[in-house]
Amino acid sequence: MPYTNAVFDPAAPVGSSQLSAGDNAIRAAKLDIKERMETLVEDFDANPLALIAGLVGTIGAVAGKKMLIASDAFVPEEDQDDWTYFNDYVQTDDSGTRVLKAPVILPPGAIITEIEYLWTRDGALTGQYGVLCATDFDVATAFNELFFVEEAGAGVKLTSTGATSILIEDNKLYKILVRPLVAGALIGRVQLFGVRITYDTPSAEVTL
């Protein structure tokens, strides 16, 4: 239903208006507010107010939000001496068995739609391997691999998982692991610049 006053004018009444018309202006403003709020709440006269049923599931839905994880956030899974931190990236030592890890902190209900890794390598390594892992918070279990990506190309690469649909659950812990593509005594280094996660928030209840 259209509003009684189609335009909500926060500047009305102007200072030059007649004082005797002030009560009409107050009534008009209250009517404007009530009519507009009734598109959001069940009963504007109720105490307390309640959102229209189902509305909270549609407000605040945002697709394509981004979360960046800088290289500084990654820590070695083994000895700290196995890694070197530079201004722009973190680098492994000359061994193919080293693993970097960083937590993924997203609200329950968010849906990861893509993970991208900015990285490179040198030496004899055949490539890099990145994976999203999760484990149940309530029980002491090992992290399980959910979605991984491999990069075999030389030079600095932005490697994408492509389209994914990974629901963040409220009883799980999540982290990203990065390691050489082939474990073993290969001579070479992985250099990680960072990770970018794209995710959707289905409603206003799902946000950081």
Features of this protein?
Jelly Rolls, 2 domains, seven-stranded antiparallel beta sheet, single chain, mainly beta
Total E-strand runs: 12
CATH superfamily of the largest domain: Galactose-binding domain-like
Our count of helices gives 1
**Main CATH class of the largest domain:** Mainly Beta
| Rg for CA atoms | 27 Å
**Level-2 CATH architecture of the largest domain:** Sandwich
Ordered list of secondary-structure elements with their pairings:
Elements: H1 22-37, E1 62-70, E2 75-76, E3 83-85, E4 90-92, E5 100-103, E6 111-123, E7 128-136, E8 144-151, E9 157-160, E10 166-167, E11 172-180, E12 188-201
Overview of this structure, please?
The chain is elongated. The chain folds into two domains: 53 residues, no CATH class; 140 residues, Jelly Rolls (Sandwich), CATH 2.60.120.260. The protein starts with 21 loop residues before the first helix and ends in a 7-residue tail after the last strand. It is 8% helix and 38% strand. The model has no long low-confidence stretch (mean pLDDT 82). Strands 1, 3, 4, 6, 9, 10 and 12 form a seven-stranded antiparallel beta sheet that branches. A five-stranded antiparallel beta sheet has the order 2-5-11-7-8, with no helix packed on it. The longest helix has 16 residues. The chain has one helix and twelve strands, in the order αββββββββββββ. It has 208 residues and is mainly beta.
